[in-house]
Amino acid sequence: MDFSLTDEERAIRDTARQFITREVMPLEQEALLRERRHEPGLDRSELRELQLKAKKFGFWGLSTPEEYGGMELPAVLQSLIWTEVGRTFVQFKFGGEADNILYYANEQQKQEFLIPTIEGERISCFAITEPGAGSDAANIKLSARPDGDDWILNGEKTFITNGNDADFVIVVAVTDREKGVRGGGTTAFLVDRDMGWRSEFIQTMGEGGPASLIFDDVRVPARNILGEIGQGFELGMKWIGKGRYLIPSNALGIAERALGMAIDYANTRETFGRKIGDNQAIQWMIADSEVELEAARWLILRAAWTVDQGEDPRHASSMAKLYGARMVNDVVDRVMQIHGGMGYTRELPIERWYRQVRLMRIYEGTDEMQRLIISRDLLRGYTKIGGHLA
Ligand SMILES: Cc1cc2nc3c(=O)[nH]c(=O)nc-3n(C[C@H](O)[C@H](O)[C@H](O)COP(=O)(O)OP(=O)(O)OC[C@H]3O[C@@H](n4cnc5c(N)ncnc54)[C@H](O)[C@@H]3O)c2cc1C
Questions:
Q1: What is the pLDDT of residues 201-224, one digit of tens each?
Q2: Is 362 in the pocket of ligand 1 (CB under 6 A)?
């Protein structure tokens, strides 16, 4: 058994770390100030400028196939890089990426949607959740009915990330109520904003915010169907599945940085004539955080490795998402506790992380949905206890 990184993995990970440390972290103070004024920490043009700088460093399209100019990295390397990005709270991500399901586009759609998204010229969003259907995504109601060569979309999506900024949405609609959502009754459509949907900002405890998307008789040409008629729910599940090991990878970076801050603080802050780190109460919080971080690391890397083996990653990814999301919440909570009153202020990023990481237990499958998947796999015998070593 070998738990080490290859030389190539280490070199790419270290270069990503250098980029984040030298080019992104210096922007943190300004980003915090802007967020306090309810402005984005990084605006669209600044993000693009940073992404183009990263391209010169060699980082462009981590998951994008080489034929589209990307790096097409194995999942383990993508995971390692997402961890590096998690170290900064500036809302940065490497450029050259597009939603995984846009690769189901036909040639014309690729020119119109996929390639401009990879190039950063267009912003996409993905919409399946509705006011009455989140975890129970099979209960969606937004309808699409045929009308000549077009389809007419009616209904509402909610909590859509990038929904306020997106130029187009990949929306899953019910096209055949009788077949049902799981029986091939849904279809994904590529819908430009100027076709008539509108977005409404939703205030959340996090920075930025998702949006509700309202479709009121929105006419969409049949050529904008993504994939096949009836494939909508399947594509939706593929989109959601992609993030299951990347979200906790990002969480790992946040937890590592936050724990590092707590250790520095415990080694300098004095009470009752000695460092707070000399107290067992503080030592235990640090120890528990390190153990949970390390456990999450291997669950996450194992999930990514499963993807690279070409095996079904769902079970491993659900375990990584469930544990990673809980871990980062617990670690950040302890880091705040160790910092005392300072941890609660907006002088430091801890309260920001505290608000940010709470979302990780909710979106792209709640804790409860991950538990449902994990237990169902075991109860029905799809997976053996002991994973790939069983
Ligand atoms: C900031 C943000 C960004 C998001 N981005 C997107 C996006 O880009 N695109 C998109 O389509 N969606 C997006 N979502 C939606 C997100 O995926 C859903 O909020 C999530 O799936 C939970 O659905 P819900 O909010 O309807 O909660 P519900 O499904 O109503 O669940 C409420 C509670 O009940 C629990 N629960 C539900 N069913 C069961 C059960 N059978 N057993 C046990 N417990 C259960 C849940 O775990 C949860 O705790 C986003 C959400 C947020 C908050």
A1: 999 999 888 999 999 999 999 999
A2: yes
Closest ligand 1 atom number to CA of residue 365:
21
The CA 159 to ligand 1 mean position distance, Å, reads 9
Place of tokens 């801890």: 350
Q: Model's pTM, two decimal places? A: 0.95
C-beta 126 within 6 A of ligand 1: yes
Ligand 1 centre and the CA of 368: distance in Å? Answer: 10
Beta strands 124-127 and 168-174 are: parallel
pLDDT (0 to 100) of residue 163:
97
Q: What is the pLDDT of residue 242?
A: 83
Among the listed residues 242, 250, 261, 239, the one whose alpha carbon sits nearest the alpha carbon of residue 325: 250
Ligand 1 pocket test, pick from 101, 126, 135 with the greatest ligand atom count within 8 Å of Cβ, gives: 135
Separation in Å, CA 102 to CA 95, 151, 347: 16, 20, 41
How far, in Å, CA of 40 to CA of 34, rounded?
6
Pairing assessment for the beta strands 211-221 and 274-275 based on DSSP bridges: unpaired
- The single-letter code of the amino acid at 243 is G
